[in-house]
Structure formats: C-alpha cells, structure tokens
Amino acid sequence: MSEITNFRGETRPAQDKSEIDQVVPALISRVGERVRKARERKGIPRRVLSDRSGVSPRYLAQLEAGEGNISIGLLQRVAVALDHRIEWLIGEEDPWTSDAVRVADLYRGATSSTQQAVLDLLAPQTPETQRAGRVCLVGLRGAGKSTLGSMAGKELGIPFVELNSEIESQSGMPVSELMALYGQEGYRQLEAQAINRIIATHDSLILAVAGGIVAEPETYTNVLAHFHTIWIKARPDEHMARVRAQGDERPMAGNPEAMEQLRSILTSREALYGRSLAQLDTSDQTVDQSLASLITMVQERGFTG
After folding, report:
1. 12 is in an annotated binding site
2. Most buried among 59, 135, 144, 279, using CB within 10 Å?
3. pTM for the complete prediction?
4. Does 261 carry a binding-site annotation?
5. Cα 198 to Cα 135: distance, rounded to the nearest angstrom
6. Domain 125-300 has CATH 1.10.10.10
7. Are 292 and 156 in contact (CB under 8 A)?
8. What does the domain layout of the chain look like in residue ranges?
9. 215 among annotated binding-site residues
10. pLDDT score, position 5
11. Higher pLDDT pick, 61 / 129
12. Is 91 helix (H, G, I), strand (E, B) or coil?
C-alpha cells in the first residue's frame, strides 16, 4: 500500500477508495451545517446570502441540507459573503467551539518572532533535535551560498542541495518556465513543498536557498525550525560584482539604479536574515578563506551533528 508523508515528515498508509467514499459525504454534510450555522448566527436570510454570494437560494438550501457538493470557487464566495475563512467551513475543528482554531487565528496575526516562540514551545522535540544535521545557507544572490555550500558539502562528506535545482529536478522544468507558468506565488508554493520534502528525506545536508525566501513567513519559519541557518553576507558592491563575474549582466543592464535597488533590498531583508543562527561575512575574503571559516563555524557549533 502506498504511503503519504505529511509536513512533519511522518508517514501513514494512504486511504483506499472505500475510506474516501465515506469521508466525502461527511465533508459535504459538515460544510452544509457550517454554512447554515454561520448564516443563522449572523441573522442573514438565505436570499440575502444568495444576493451577496451569487449562489442561488435553491442551491444554498441543498448545500445546508448536506446535499450540495459545492465547488471550491463557489464555497469561497459563500465564505466571503459570511465574512468567514473558507477553512472554517471545511475543517474538522468547529470554529465556534475549538480553541485550536482560535489559536491558529491568533498565530496568523502574530509577528514572526512570536510565531517561532510558539512553535518552539509546542514542538515535541528540542530545536536541536528538529534541525538534526541540516544546514541552510541564506542571503542575497552573489554572497557565495552555492559555491561555498557545494565545497563545504564535499569537505564535510554530506550532500549539498540547491533548492532551485531540486525544484527543477522534481518538476522537469527550468525555474524561468515555472515562474512564467505559475507566477511568483505559485513558485513560492513549490519552494515550500520542496523544503518539506528535503526535511522528510534528509537528516544531514547543506541547503542553499534563493534570497527572497525569507520574505515568505511560513516557509522561512519552517526553515528556521528545521535547519541550522547561516546568513552568508557581503557588501552590496561585492554582491553585484560576483553576479556579473558569473556572466550575468541583467542586474545592471539598462538600469542605472540597480545598485541602489540592491542596497534597498538588502536593508529591507536585513532583520529577516538576522534571524539566522549564525552569520558569515565573505566581504574581502577569498573563496578558500570563506570556506575555511564556514567549515570551522559548522564544526565548532555542531551543526552537522
């Protein structure tokens, strides 16, 4: 029987068709009951909800009776009309009686540092155990993440993975095509999925991620919880020079403000990168010098176990 791996890396047997056949009617019934309760609590007649959502009164009646297999798109319209989250209408936890739902809602509105503190408090393992021997290099492009990560992996005898390459390998498409097909938001979802997959399959490795991943709160929080993170940093002029040395003239092409924009990006992300467990400044350092510093840091702090 096939297995399903969840976001914690835990596996369980996949449900067979008979089990799924039982789950679906229960879900339809639950959604209908939730919609009815939400409408009644707000004192909204069914016809008014119909006008607000664009879903016919007859179909709403079928839905509330547990007889309407509503599409996600229509259910989202109903949720918006009720001023509810769609997950409140779908989830197994009753949003009006569940402390778990309330905690989740408070968590979403908390600062990233508070979210991390909550995760550390509730996690069944210590942060060190959760991170195992996984190291993640973060920072802007041109800092040296891929170069140093690859060399350090060989030196330490552990795998090196570049997240973009992992995504390309899994999807069978280059990043440029994935971005064109799914957009920035879709690609960020692929990043999150790839990181969960790496956590589930690797206890020890060095991972290099794209510079913008820190701007995705949930994904970055997951990285901080499951990897020993190191911010590979450099001065803005060195970032730009290294990118151009790789043969990529795009950052400067037709953009006289490119350097100022780079400084602005670095400033805006500095606090996020600063949440890393360690920092390595590669400014004015040779590759060999930076590599030696990185290996010393990893070994002295026991990041790889």
Report:
1. no
2. 135
3. 0.61
4. no
5. 11
6. no
7. no
8. 3-107, 125-300
9. no
10. 46
11. 61
12. coil
